[in-house]
């Protein structure tokens, strides 16, 4: 079997360096949600394709840790590879370090790729692994992985202020103002969406996300941008240079960090940095005596990430335009579904059709994530992604859950509608109505400045709780502007997140009900935090809904909505109709 | 002026020890909400009577830190004393250590009473004060405070299982089970309500709270109880001794802690302990080499505190009985108010009348806190406490806010009703209805196991937010069983509190609206977390309301309630009527 052979190739490489085991995570050096094929070493080694896993290989065995979303997939894909499945959050599952200590001897070396572990993860692992010896190594795959897909460095687009609402020099100066203390600083940015937002650039280096493979180091004077300069059109180079951006090759980030002046405070944006880059950034200090401290990002969730999350009015107008374009396509799509339902279309065919309708808009750039089109019991699988090989026929009776989004030049969308097909049971209608009720109740919330997402979560979840049901995911994630469909730092979920909601933050609003083996219902709009009123009591905020896609009422049990909810639904659908005229 | 003379007496005592300043907090060694007169040294020194303050005295000056609730009172009471008022949380107010560093010289000694600072507060202050020299001292007031009220050690009552639902031996063994690790331990309890709950005893040593001045140290074998043994009836001594309690004099706690075996792990219940007792507990380890560690209480909020908070069915039945008795008295009281309104009764007279009605019940022991009976604009002062000297006449038009509670042998009550007197404006009715709506919406919540109070707060606060208003206090505090009316560790408030809500936890439910200078509205019921259902989704809880006092509907704008809220109100008032028959 090819996978066993590949693992043995890796074992040989490691053995030459006296390495007893290697821990292989599934992320890349930028710690984003999507990872270039180049970094998909777990898939190459084992055939396991899910996005979240950690593989550990020793000279005699291998084990893979993943979470409950992927247990079934892992059991099937790992068959015959000899890789042991370790179920995260299941009683009795050892941690990676426990397992390694059971399988290795004191003093054995455990390798970790210096570019795939954040410095914090690495130091935590060092503590856990003792008495084993941790060792940071370079990527060992180049020599053994034939036809390894290269990293792609595709052309970069520059977004002007008609799209971003703010130039790079202005963003830079606002960032500097928030960071400046008494000492000079270097703000080191690893996350690609933060860099793209700061520099008003977009690319296509990562699937579904208009990102540019890059690093960034900001000081009071300049933005040092590390990317493949050849992919930047010369007018963009001129434009950005005039706004204080200095270009460096992508591969030069390490050398630049090693040469950071001793007396400059190192600040790591959002706290994210690879072990390799962290150590490089501290080298001058380690070698020439301590001088400047390094400090965590001074704001909960990150200074830059918070700036990015608070959209300006131009960005919000772009979002609204994108939602209108997207609604036009989806309305055609829903009609197409209903017209073709008798022909036995598959979920995957439907997804392709939706893309076709979206493509009619000249500003459409692509999907913002893998379309989730899930009929019946597939709707209850939260991470269901129909493919050409694996897709069900859409039936005539039941719920069809459609959670998709698109990238437009002026905005990113993320919308879920659950179509009611044929006959529904009273239970199904009551579930649909509870989900809708939760979605509305969060939409109409008023709250004071300082409110955190966890305080509002019950508004969306409460009506579902009252049916004795519960969805296990968050209610709201942030959405990037013409960027990643999932972004931080804000959220609305059961778990505490100390980030407060601020005007301009864009969030999904997506309560749900999942009945395993039967159906899934999710309704997702996008909402923006906006000022409501300031008085002697407080500064108050509310949400504005910016999705423009009507909500079908076939499955609504109106008896279960109160008068305010009914009025909201009527107004919302009327507003959408006006917008789509 | 007597206060200046008293402060000078203290300065003389301090000067003899070369002490430049003393920091005097307003708590006692047990860190409870109410403090015996013996410890009210700030009141004796300055005339300031509010419960939360810190006084700092130097050889030449004095300053007092307090929060916004007490600014007006402090300005009036401190007049002529020369004590500078330091307004907490007001921009420009120095911290105590900043102020001391400005007023003293490097190396000057700053004294703190070793029994009034927790070890954590003391060490934090040590860090802050540098380069001043902190020094723990004994209470210096005995020699200068003539007629200092003594500590009271009143007779102790034992509550049998018909009231507590669980004997001491059983509580001890459950506690031991939760604390036992591999090493022997000593669980050191400073909080009086925790001791009273564990030992099933009650006293009258603290105002409004049926507490016994005591300390406790628990190990696997025994409960060592430190109190004045002479106040314990001999049958109670025998009973408790048979359940594993070993009696020691109150004053022996220090010696006992100093002699704790070296190899026993010190655990401080709820993390609370005086600097003196902490240092005593570590003396054997400091002197004879490190051996056992000391650890914080292993459970968020404290193991014992969590056990105490989850009431058993006998305790809950006791609460219900108490609420029925209390409702009977309050109904008579409300009628009396309406009958006598034309006679010009004061809030204080009304409070005495309510106590008179409550005293008709033979099981009534006293109030559970200072009655708040506040007419009109007084209702907007959250900490308003009418006294014989300071009390307004109850007018004919407006809201009368009545927040009172009582101690019965089988339970503690805390209830607020806002009576609508005469004519109200539409705005007043809408505010009243919003408060009621919030109270109801929290009452009918359903939620899953693991929910924290901050997740539910918006249910009570939301309807008030929707009117652009906000109350700044929490929505819910815990209530002790025949114990303190305020108890932890659970709460429902805007701030994150990681304690999860568990069945048997009793909470207030008290949203409010305050219009400064005009009126205050608060409606407060008591609710208990109870199991609802367990299914494939989760274990779900709900609240049961145990207050038995109807809610007057004169001020309700029924248009603003939805059908579920209306039904709840009707059912609740009907249920109360049945209970009170």
The CATH class of the largest domain in chain A is identified as Alpha Beta
Strand content bin of chain A? 15-25%
Q: Roughly what is the average pLDDT of chain A, rounded to an integer?
A: 95
Give the CATH topology of the largest domain in chain A: Creatine Amidinohydrolase
Helix coverage percent of residues of chain A?
25-40%
CATH H-level name of the largest domain in chain A... which superfamily?
Creatinase/methionine aminopeptidase superfamily
Question: How many whole angstroms does the radius of gyration of chain A measure?
Answer: 25 Å
Largest interface: A-B, 33 and 33 residues
Which consecutive residue ranges of chain A, at least 5 long each, have pLDDT under 50?
A: none
CATH architecture of the largest domain in chain A: Alpha-Beta Complex
Q: What is the first-to-last residue Cα distance of chain A?
A: 58 Å
The total of beta strands of chain A comes to 28
| Largest beta-sheet characterization of chain A | 6 strands, mixed
Total domain modules of chain A: 3
Biggest sheet, spatial arrangement of strands of chain A? 4-3-2-1-5-6
Class from secondary-structure proportions of chain A: alpha+beta
Q: List the total number of helices of chain A.
A: 17
Quaternary structure of the protein: homodimer
Shape of chain A: globular
Task: Give an overview of the whole structure.
Two copies of one chain form a homodimer. Chain A is of the alpha+beta class and 581 residues long. Chain A has three domains: 2-137, 3-Layer(aba) Sandwich (Creatine Amidinohydrolase, Chain A, domain 1), CATH 3.40.350.10; 157-304, Creatinase/prolidase N-terminal domain (Creatine Amidinohydrolase, Chain A, domain 1, 3-Layer(aba) Sandwich), CATH 3.40.350.10; 310-580, Creatine Amidinohydrolase. The first copy, chain A, is 34% helix and 22% strand. Chain A contains 17 helices and 28 strands. In chain A, helix 9 (234-242) links the parallel strand 11 (223-226) and strand 12 (245-248). At the A-B interface, strand 21 and helix 16 of A face strand 21 and helix 16 of B.
């Amino acid at each position: 079997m090819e996978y066993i052979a590949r693992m043995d190739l890796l074992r040989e490489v490691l053995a030459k360096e006296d390495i007893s085991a290697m821990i292989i995570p599934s992320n890349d050096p930028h710690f984003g949600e999507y990872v270039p094929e180049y970094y998909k070493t777990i898939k190459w080694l084992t055939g396991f394709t899910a996005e979240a896993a950690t593989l550990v290989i020793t000279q005699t065995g291998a084990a893979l840790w993943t979470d409950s979303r992927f247990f079934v997939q892992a059991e099937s894909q790992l068959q015959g590879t000899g890789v042991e499945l370790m179920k995260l959050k299941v009683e009795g599952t050892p941690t990676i370090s426990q397992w390694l200590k059971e399988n290795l001897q004191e003093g054995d070396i455990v390798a970790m790729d210096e570019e795939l572990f954040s410095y914090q993860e690495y130091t935590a692992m060092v503590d856990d692994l003792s008495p084993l010896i941790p060792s940071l190594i370079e990527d060992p795959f180049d020599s053994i992985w034939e036809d390894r897909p290269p990293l792609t460095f595709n052309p970069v687009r520059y977004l002007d202020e008609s799209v971003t609402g703010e130039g790079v020099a202005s963003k830079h100066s606002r960032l500097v103002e928030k960071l400046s203390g008494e000492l000079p600083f270097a703000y080191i940015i690893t996350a690609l969406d933060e860099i793209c937002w700061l520099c008003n650039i977009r690319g296509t280096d990562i699937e579904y996300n208009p990102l540019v493979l890059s690093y960034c180091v900001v000081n009071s004077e300049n933005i040092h941008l590390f990317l493949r300069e050849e992919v930047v059109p010369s007018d963009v180079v001129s434009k950005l240079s005039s706004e204080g951006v200095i270009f460096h090759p992508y591969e030069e980030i390490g050398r630049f960090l090693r040469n950071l002046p001793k007396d400059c405070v190192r600040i790591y944006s959002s706290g994210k940095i690879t072990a390799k880059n962290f150590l490089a950034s501290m080298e001058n200090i380690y070698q020439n005596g301590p001088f400047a401290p390094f400090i965590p990002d001074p704001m909960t969730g990150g200074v830059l990430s918070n700036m990015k999350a608070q959209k300006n009015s131009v960005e919000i107008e772009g979002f609204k335009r994108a939602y209108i374009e997207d609604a036009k396509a989806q309305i055609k799509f829903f009609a197409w579904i209903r017209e073709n339902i008798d022909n036995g279309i598959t979920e995957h065919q439907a997804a392709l059709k939706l893309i076709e309708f979206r493509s009619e808009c000249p500003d459409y750039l692509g999907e913002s994530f893998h379309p989730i089109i899930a009929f019946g019991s597939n709707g209850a699988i939260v991470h269901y992604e129909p493919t050409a090989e694996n897709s069900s026929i859409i039936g005539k009776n039941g719920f069809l859950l459609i959670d998709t989004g698109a990238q437009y030049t002026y905005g990113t969308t993320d919308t879920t509608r659950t179509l009611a097909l044929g006959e529904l049971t009273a239970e199904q209608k009551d579930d649909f109505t509870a989900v809708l009720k939760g979605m509305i109740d969060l939409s109409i919330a008023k709250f004071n400045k300082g409110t955190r997402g966890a305080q509002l979560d019950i508004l969306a979840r409460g009506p579902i709780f009252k049916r004795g049901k519960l969805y296990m995911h968050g209610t709201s994630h942030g959405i990037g502007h013409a960027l990643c469909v999932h972004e931080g730092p804000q959220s609305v979920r059961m778990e505490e997140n100390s980030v407060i909601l601020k005007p301009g933050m864009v969030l999904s609003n997506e309560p749900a009900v999942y009945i395993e083996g039967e159906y899934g219902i999710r309704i997702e709009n996008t909402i923006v935090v906006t000022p409501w009123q300031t008085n002697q009591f407080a500064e108050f905020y509310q949400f504005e809904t910016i999705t423009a896609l009507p909500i079908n009422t076939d499955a609504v049990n109106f008896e279960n909505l109160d008068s305010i909810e009914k009025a909201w639904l009527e107004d919302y659908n009327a507003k959408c109709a006006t917008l789509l005229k």
